[in-house]
Amino acid sequence: MLLLVITISLYFHKFSQAETLKIGAIFDTDDPIKERAFHHAIHQIEPIHGRTIEGLVKNVPPNDPFEAMLAACHLIESGAVAILGPTTHENAHMVQTVCDNKDIPLLDVRSVAHPQNSINFYPLQQILTQIYIKLLEAWNFENFVILYENDDSLIRLAELLKFYGNGHRMVVRQLDKYQNGNYRPTLKEVWRSGATHFVLDCSTDILEEVLHQAQQVGLVTNKQFYIITNLDFHTLDLTSFQYSETNITGMRFIDPDSDEIQNLGLTLYRNDFTNTEFGFIEAWKVNLEMALIIDAVTMFGEVLNRLPKDFAIPSIDCASDKAWTYGTTLTNLVKSVKYPGYTGLIQFDNFGLRSAFGLEIIELKEGGIIKIGNWNYSDGLNINRVYPPDPPPLVEGSLVNRTFIVITCLTEPYGMRRDSEVPLYGNERYEGFGIDLIAELSKKLGFNYTFIIREDKKNGEFDESSGEWTGMIGDVISGKADLAITDLTITSERESAVDFSTTFMSLGISILYQKPKKALPSFFSFADPFSLTVWKLLAAAFFGASIALFILGRISPSEWQNPYPCVEDEFLVNQLSLRNCVWFMVGSLMQQGSEIAPIAFSTRMVAGMWWFFTLIMVSSYTANLAAFLTTESPDLPFKDVFELVQVAEKKGIKFGAKINGSTEKFFLDSKHVDEYQQIYKYMKNHEDEVMVNDNKDGVHKAEHEDYAFFMETTSIEYETQRRCGLTSVGHSLDEKGYGIAMRKNSSYRMALSTAILKLQEEGVLAKLKRKWWEEQRGGGLCPQGEKSTEGTPLNLKNVEGVFCVTIIGTVLSCVLVFVEMAVHTFKKSLRVKKPFKVLLMDEMRFYFRTSAMLKPVTAPKPEPYGFITS
User: Counting beta carbons within 10 angstroms of the beta carbon of residue 835, is it exposed (0 to 12), middle (13 to 18) or buried (19 or more)?
Assistant: First the structure.
C-alpha cells in the first residue's frame, strides 16, 4: 500500500513538473524594477500547449563569474528553457559559456559591440554608429570633441573614430579617468580650447551630473552643440538645462507619450504611488533595458508555441555532457520571426543580429524634449525640423551680396600663404587671423570678398613731398581696395584720411628682449633666507635672552648650590655666569646643547622659550634656504623703459623699432616724457644700425644680439610663443588698437563695427587669437605665464609670532623669579628671626654685585631643598 502511494505521488509530481515551463533570469544590478519587468513579461505569456509559464530569478553580485556560473547551473538543473542573461561583462560571458555548453537559449539585452551566440535584442552597435554619423553630417559637426566615460564607451565609439576621422578634426577625452566623480578638469580643458561641438557617451548614472558640471564651467550655453549617444537620455530630469538654449540632440526607442508606455509605466511603478491617478507621469522612467527585457521574454514565449506539443523540458545536470535537444531549434526560431514589441519591430538579419529597427531623434527645448525626426532601416535619417542659420543683422547700408576687394600684407599671423601640396587659387591661398576675421564678418553680413596682397608690407604714411598717402592706406584712398586689414594701428593721422571700424584687437608698445640668465650667487648668499631686519632682531633676541638668563639665574635662590653637597661649606656657587649663559644660548641655537642645565622654574622657562624660538627659526631658515638653492634669480639688466635709457650706454645695449611705423611715431609725438625723447633721438642718430624695415629683422636682432626691440604687445606675444629665448620686458607704454580701414564716409562702416562687436561678445575674436597665437604655426612651444623663480626672504611679518611668544615667556619668567625670591626670603626671615625687609635688601644688594659668583652661607647648616639661612 505504501509503495502504491509513493508511486502515485511521484507520478503526480512528474506530471506537475511537465505542466510548467520555466524561464530563468539572472540579475546582477540592484534594480527591483527590472525584476518587476521580467515577472510582468512572464504574466503576459499565455499557457503553451496547456503548460503554464513560471519565472525563476537568481540574484548575483556584479562581475562575479563564479556566482553567475552557479546561478546558471541552478536554473538549468531546475528545468529552465531559456535564461535572461546578466548585464555586467564578466557575468554575462560566463553565463553564455554555460548556456552554449548545454544548448540553452540565452536572451541578452546588453549593448555588445560584436554579439556572438546569444539572442541579442539590443540594436546592433554598428548601425547605431551609422546614425551618429548621419546626425553629425546633418548638424555640420566638422570639428568636435568626443567625451567618453570608460573603455566600454570607447569600444562603442571605435567605429565612429574609424569612419569619421578622415578630413575632420576629432579630439577624444575621457571624462574622469580616476573615477572619482569630478569631471571638471576635463570639461575646463575643452572649455579653454574653445570647442563648441561635442559627442557625449556615458551611462545614465553619471550623465545628469556631467551636464551639471559642464554647466558650471560654462559649457552649457547657446554656443554649444551636443549629441548624446545614450538611448535613455529622455529618462533624466533635464529641467535645469531647458532654458540654457544649448543645442542638445539625442535618440530614443521609447516614446513616453504613447499610451502603451504610459500603461507600462503605471504597471511597473504601481507600488511607488499613493495616488495611481497620476501614475502615467512615471512613463518617462521606463528605460530601454526594461522594455527589452519585456520584449525578449514575451517574444520567446510566442516562439515556444511553435515547438511540438510534446517537446521535452530540459532535465540536465551541469556536470554531465548532456545538452538540450530543442535549444538550437528555439534559438533559430527566435531569430527567424518578427515581433512587434515596445522597442518597435524586432527582427534579426541573416547573421542573427538586430540590424533592422527604428528610433526617434529628439531635442531638448524650453518646453522639454521634443521629437524632431526619426531613423529607420529602410529610409535612413529623416529630420523634419531644420534650424536655418541666423539671418544677417538688419542695419543701415546692408552688405548682403556686395563684393569687396580686401588688401592685406603677408605679416604673421594676420596674413600668410597657406602651405599646400596642391595648387590653390583665390582666397584659399591665404590664411591667418585677418583672413579668418574677414570670413567671419562675411558670414554675419552676407558679403563676398577677394584678397589682394601688398608685397612691400607698408601700412601707409603721408608723403609730404608728393602730398599723398603710401602703402595700404593709399590703396584704400585711391580705390584700389575697399578694405585694408593687417596689424594696422588706428592713429589720429590715419583716421583723418580714412575711416576705421571699431577696434578688433587692443594692444600697446613693449620691449622684446632676451630672457634673463641666472644671476651668480653673492658672497653672503647663505644669509638670503632672512631679511636684514630679521637678522638684526635675531641677534638682539640672542643677546637679550642671554642677559635675561644671567639676571634670572642670579636672582633665583634655586640656582645657588653647594658645590660639595656632602661637605658643609661657607659659600654657594652659581653656574649661570654671563659667559656660561651666552654659551648655553649658542649651543641651543646651533642645535648642539651644552653641559649647563638651569635648575629654577624661571630659568627653565627662559631656556624653554629660547628652545622654542630656535626650533622655529632654524626650521624656517632651513626651509627657505632650500628654496633659494633650488630657484634661479634672473639677472635682468633693466626692468622697464626708464632703466633701459639709464643703463643702455653703460652696458652696451642697443634698441630700436620699425622704420616709419606707428611705434617710431609714438616716440616722436611723446614730447612730455624726456626718456621717450631720448629714445627717439638715439634711434634717429643710429638709424642704420638699430632701425629695421620689418618686424622679423627686429626679432632676429633681439634673439642674437644685445638688442632691445620696441614692438606691439600682440606681436611680442606671438613671437614669445615660438622663440623661447625671448621675453617681454616692462609694461605697455601706451594703449591703441587695430582696425579695418575703409574710404572716408563709407556707408558700411557701422555694419562692420557692429558685426565686430558681436564677434567679440560671442567669443569668436578670442577663439581666433588663441588659434593663431597659441595653436597654429608652432604656437604653444614656449610656456607662458611662468611663476617667478626668485626666492623671497622671510621678513618680520613672517616670524613676528615666534618673537612675540618668546618675549611673553621671558616676561613671565621675570615675574616668576621675583615670586620665588620673595617666598625664599620670607621663609628665611622666619628661620633666622630677622625682618623680611632687611633680608630682602641684603639679597638685592648681593644680586647687583654682578661679578660675585660666590654667595656666603649665613646659616650653620643648609635648610631642606637647598635653602641656606643667614
Answer: exposed
- The reported pLDDT for the residue numbered 278 is 41
d(C-alpha 462, C-alpha 444), whole Å: 34
842 touches 870 (CB < 8 A): yes
Q: For residue 788, give every residue at least 6 positions away whose Cβ sits within 8 Å of its Cβ, in sequence order, or none.
A: none
216: pLDDT strictly greater than 90: no
Q: Which stretch of 20-24, 340-344, 625-629 has the lowest confidence by average pLDDT?
A: 625-629
Residue 8 has pLDDT above 60, yes or no: no
C-alpha cell at 679: 629714445
Grouping H, G, I as helix, E, B as strand and the rest as coil, residue 107 is strand
Set of cell numbers at residue 416? 600668410
Q: Give the mean model confidence (pLDDT) for residues 681-697.
A: 87
Which of 193-207, 513-527, 638-652, 812-826 shows the lowest per-residue confidence on average (mean pLDDT)?
A: 513-527
Helix intervals (H) in 112-183: 125-138, 151-156, 158-164
103 with 327: CB under 8 angstroms?
A: yes
User: Peptide bond preceding 413: is omega within 30 degrees of 0, i.e. cis?
Assistant: yes
Q: Does residue 514 or residue 570 have the better pLDDT? A: 514
- For the chain, state the CA radius of gyration: 45
Q: Which CATH superfamily is domain 125-252+357-383 in?
A: Response regulator (3.40.50.2300)
Quote the CA–CA distance of 19 and 79 in Å, as a whole number. 12
pLDDT at 354 over 80: yes
The grid coordinates listed for 425 are 587659387
CATH code of the domain made up of 635-734: 3.40.190.10
Top-tier CATH class for 19-122+284-330: alpha beta
Give the other-Cβ count within 10 Å of 503's Cβ.
Answer: 18
pLDDT given for residue 7 in this prediction: 42
Detail the DSSP E strand segments found in 260-409: 339-341, 344-346, 358-365, 368-376, 380-383, 403-408
| Amino acid of residue 548 | A
Residues of the chain with CATH 3.40.190.10: 403-506+741-774, 635-734
Q: Supply the pLDDT for residue 868.
A: 44
Query: Nearest 5°: phi and psi at 812?
Result: -65, -35
Q: For residue 627, how far is the Cα from the chain centroid?
A: 28
End-to-end Cα separation, the chain, in angstroms: 124
Edge-first strand order for the sheet with 197-201 is: 169-174, 143-148, 197-201, 225-228, 247-252, 358-365, 368-376, 380-383
For 591-614, give the secondary structure using H, E and C: CCCCCCCCCCHHHHHHHHHHHHHH
- What are the pLDDT digits (tens) for 735-758? 888 999 999 988 888 999 999 999
pLDDT at 855: 59
If pLDDT is split at 50, 70 and 90, which confidence band does 567 have? low
Query: For residues 664 and 865, what is the distance between their CA atoms, to the nearest angstrom?
Result: 90
Question: What band does 795 get if pLDDT is binned at 50, 70 and 90?
Answer: low
How far apart are the C-alpha atoms of 811 and 116, rounded to whole Å? 86
- Residue 624: all three cell numbers together: 627657505
Helix (H) or strand (E) holding 709: strand 707-712
Task: Give me the CATH topology for the region 403-506+741-774.
Answer: D-Maltodextrin-Binding Protein; domain 2 (3.40.190)
Structure confidence at residue 740 (pLDDT)? 95
Residue 863 CB neighbours (<10 A) = 13
Contacts of 713 (CB under 8 A, 6+ apart): 507, 508, 509, 510, 728, 732
Q: Measuring CA to CA, how many Å separate 690 from each of 169, 305, 461, 716?
A: 44, 97, 21, 18
Across the range 355-378, mean pLDDT stands at 86
Rounded CA gap, 664 and 43, in Å?
Answer: 90
CA distance 269 to 267: 6
Please say if the pLDDT value at position 193 is more than 80.
yes
